[in-house]
Design goal:
Distance between the termini: 40 Å
Helix content: 25-40%
Strand order of the largest sheet: 3-2-6-7
Strand content: 15-25%
Largest sheet: 4 strands, parallel
Number of helices: 7
Structural class: alpha/beta
Oligomer: single chain
Number of strands: 7
Shape: globular
Order of helices and strands: EEHHHEEEHEHHEH
Length: 164
C-alpha cells in the first residue's frame, strides 16, 4: 500500500480557531486542496455562514476568506496508508506536530475537530490548554446529519469564536 502525505496547515497569525480534519480524501489530495470533494459540505457551510459564494470561487479565494476571518484548517494525520477516502481505511497513520500551531497562530483560542476520527485525538489537542470541540463531519459519508443540522452546529461554534 502506498504511503500518502497530507497537506500543510492553512493558518496564520490571525487564526483564532483551527479546524482539524482527519486526513484529506482522494479528491482533496489530487487537487492539493482542503475539502476538495464537491460533495463535502465544508465550503458550503462557510459560504452560508459568511454569505459568500465560496463554492463558486477559486480555492485561493476561499482560503483568503477563511484566513481573513480567523479560521484555519489542518488535519490530525501527517501521513497514512489508505485505499479510497474513508477514515475507516486509514492505516499506519503518523500524527502531525500540533505544537507548531502555537507558533504559527499566537491568537489561537480554540481547536475544533471535524468528525469522529479527528476527535479521537482530542486528548493531544487538549494539552494546549485551549477549549477543544467536536463538530459533525462535513464529509458526504456523514449522511445521518442533513446539511441544515451541520450548518447549525458549525454556525454556533464559529460564532462563539468570532469567525462567523
Amino acid at each position: 500500500m502506498t504511503r500518502l502525505l497530507g497537506l500543510p496547515p492553512v493558518a496564520d497569525a490571525r487564526t483564532r480557531l483551527v479546524v482539524l480534519g482527519s486526513f484529506p480524501g482522494v479528491a482533496s489530495l489530487r487537487a492539493q486542496q482542503y475539502y476538495g470533494h464537491p460533495q463535502n459540505a465544508f465550503w458550503k457551510i462557510l459560504g452560508a455562514l459568511w454569505e459568500l459564494p465560496l463554492a463558486q470561487t477559486s480555492y485561493d479565494q476561499r482560503v483568503a476568506a477563511m484566513l481573513e476571518r480567523g479560521l484555519g484548517v489542518w488535519d490530525v494525520y501527517a501521513s497514512c496508508e489508505r485505499e479510497g477516502s474513508l477514515d475507516t481505511a486509514i492505516r499506519a497513520a503518523e500524527l502531525n506536530d500540533f505544537a507548531q500551531l502555537r507558533h504559527r497562530c499566537p491568537e489561537l483560542r480554540a481547536i475544533a475537530h471535524n468528525g469522529g476520527e479527528s476527535f479521537r485525538h482530542a486528548r493531544l489537542t487538549r494539552a494546549f490548554g485551549l477549549p477543544v470541540h467536536r463538530l459533525p463531519s462535513t464529509s458526504p459519508a456523514n449522511a445521518s446529519w442533513p446539511f441544515e443540522r451541520k450548518l447549525a452546529a458549525w454556525g454556533e461554534l464559529l460564532r462563539q469564536y468570532g469567525v462567523a
